[in-house]
């Protein structure tokens, strides 16, 4: 898939996903966001760049961490997501804030302005993750640090069949490199190439719990990266895709709901 097309699929897909996102993923992503923020070790007065901020679940916590006197610069490719983050940040006091609709690979920001650059579960969607890391590196001050989390290996993510199930119904890739950075030491190598030093990576297994079938289906099809393709399916296609996805996660059935395994990869690094 051409990078520009991938960006459009992501931008307009996440616009559609925004209203379902928190009901689908807030609880499931919390452990990843907790650990990423812990590794970022944000302090009051600091300036933080966030890329792929989504609805602002991490942004709001980062804002609390840098208050008083800090600054949050939150960016995301999707207009609906940036709107949600801007709304959420209205509640926060004692910080400067800006929320910008921007591609993580081309940030409309000056060099060397941030103490920390964070990104929670965004890198998998960038057509060129190296460029995304180079942008974080550029915007960081010398001595600044980054902290990111991504999904891990495909074989450790029990929901991974959502991609081929949707892709064969649209006859194209939806998210072609989703698991690339989370495989082996790819993430670390990308960060090395972007100029980062003192890189520390860790992997953690997680369990994604869904209370019922409807929530599991909503999270997979409406609350995430395949939302644009799904929007275009007719009822029959939707039904077929649901059945196939539910068959793929059947091994993880737990009572009325599901407990689906997953893996996160965390990384921190410094700009010297
Ligand atoms: C799974 S959500 C993560 C949101 C948030 N960071 C969180 O942890 O809840 C992924 C986000 O990546 C954004 N995204 C996808 N491609 C992007 C790109 N090239 N540049 C910036 N943001 C992008 C989407 O719009 C979406 O909001």
SSE order and pairing:
Elements (H helix, E strand, L loop, with lengths): L2 H38 L6 E4 L6 H10 L4 E6 L2 H11 L6 E6 L12 E7 L8 H11 E12 L10 H9 L15 H8 L3 E14 L2 H9 L5 H5 L3 H14 L4 E2 L2 E14 L2
Parallel strand pairs: 1-2, 1-4, 2-3, 4-5
Antiparallel strand pairs: 5-8, 6-8, 7-8
This protein binds S-adenosylmethionine (SAM).
List its traits.
8-stranded mixed sheet, Rossmann fold, 42% helix, 24% strand, 9 helices, 272 residues, alpha/beta, binds S-adenosylmethionine
CATH level 1 class label: Alpha Beta
Largest sheet: 8 strands, mixed
- Outline the low-pLDDT stretches: none
Strand content: 15-25%
Task: Provide the list of bound ligands, each named once.
Answer: S-adenosylmethionine
Count of all domains: 1
Mean pLDDT value: 96
CATH architecture classification name: 3-Layer(aba) Sandwich
Helix content: 40-55%
Give a description of the structure.
This protein is α/β, with parallel strands linked by helices and 272 residues long. The protein has one domain (3-160, 173-209, 262-270): Vaccinia Virus protein VP39 (Rossmann fold). The chain has 9 helices and 8 strands. It has helices at residues 3-40, 57-66, 79-89, 129-139, 162-170, 186-193, 213-221, 227-231, 235-248, and strands at residues 47-50, 71-76, 96-101, 114-120, 140-151, 197-210, 253-254, 257-270. Strands 1, 2, 3, 4, 5, 6, 7 and 8 form an 8-stranded mixed sheet that branches. Strand 2 (71-76), helix 3 and strand 3 (96-101) form a beta-alpha-beta unit. Helix 1 (3-40) packs across helix 7 (213-221). The two termini are 35 Å apart. S-adenosylmethionine is lined by residues 7, 10, 14, 29, 33, 51-54, 57-58, 76-78, 81, 103-105, 120-122, 125-126.
């Amino acid at each position: 898939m051409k990078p520009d097309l991938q960006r459009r699929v992501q931008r307009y897909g996440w616009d559609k996903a925004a209203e379902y996102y928190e009901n689908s993923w807030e609880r499931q992503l919390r452990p990843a966001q907790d650990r990423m923020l812990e590794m970022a070790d944000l302090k009051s007065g600091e300036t933080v760049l966030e890329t792929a901020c989504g609805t602002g679940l991490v942004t709001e916590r980062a804002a609390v961490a840098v208050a008083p006197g800090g600054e949050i610069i939150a960016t995301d490719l999707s207009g609906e997501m940036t709107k949600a983050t801007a709304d959420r940040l209205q509640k926060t006091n004692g910080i400067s804030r800006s929320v910008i609709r921007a591609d993580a690979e081309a940030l409309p920001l000056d060099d060397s302005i941030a103490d920390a650059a964070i990104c929670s579960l965004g890198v998998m969607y960038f057509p060129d993750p190296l460029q995304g890391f180079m942008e974080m590196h550029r915007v960081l001050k010398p001595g600044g640090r980054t902290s990111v989390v991504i999904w891990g290996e495909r074989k450790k993510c029990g929901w991974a069949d959502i991609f081929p199930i949707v892709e064969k119904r649209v006859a194209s890739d939806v998210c072609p490199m989703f698991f690339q950075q989370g495989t082996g030491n790819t993430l670390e190598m990308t960060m090395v190439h972007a100029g980062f030093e003192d890189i520390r990576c860790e992997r953690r297994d997680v369990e994604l719990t869904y209370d019922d079938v409807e929530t599991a289906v909503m999270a997979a099809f409406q609350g995430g990266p395949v939302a644009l393709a799904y929007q275009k399916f007719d009822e029959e296609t939707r039904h077929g895709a649901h059945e196939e996805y539910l068959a793929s996660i059947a091994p993880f059935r737990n009572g009325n709901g599901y407990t689906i395994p997953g893996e996160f990869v965390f990384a921190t690094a410094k700009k010297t």
